[in-house]
Amino acid sequence: MIEKIFCLNNKDKKRKLLAQELLRCKEEGLRVFINSSSDMGFNYGLISDGKSMIVISYVEYSSTLFSPTFEYVPSRKCGTGCKILDDGYGYKHLNKSIFDECVQRGSALARNYGAKFYKGINQYFTDKWLAENYIEL
Hints:
By secondary structure, the protein is of the alpha+beta class. Helix content is about 35%, strand content about 25%. Strands 5-4-3-2-1-6 form a six-stranded antiparallel beta sheet. It is globular.
């Protein structure tokens, strides 16, 4: 029997790896989302405990390290979120304890910036662009 072999390009491999890591977080009780289109040229996800949100992207020039960003209410003064780790650093895996660490570090940074916090994920998704560009896993 001949099987058709599918070659995944780097973008598809990264999306698959991200989805696997997000599903690990889901197994630990967190809500997880992935961008709705892999055609965008990049992959990103969202992890939430219902109150706080962490956006996950890849560290620049990496196919295996994840860079978290703590999300808060956008403003001209504070932007939309803060990176948790310095440039070039990332997490190899994602789980609830890493999420909790990111929320703790991100919320401390956001308080220093004077940022306003989301009341929860429902407020975050009132932004139509965000609601249309994420799929819950």
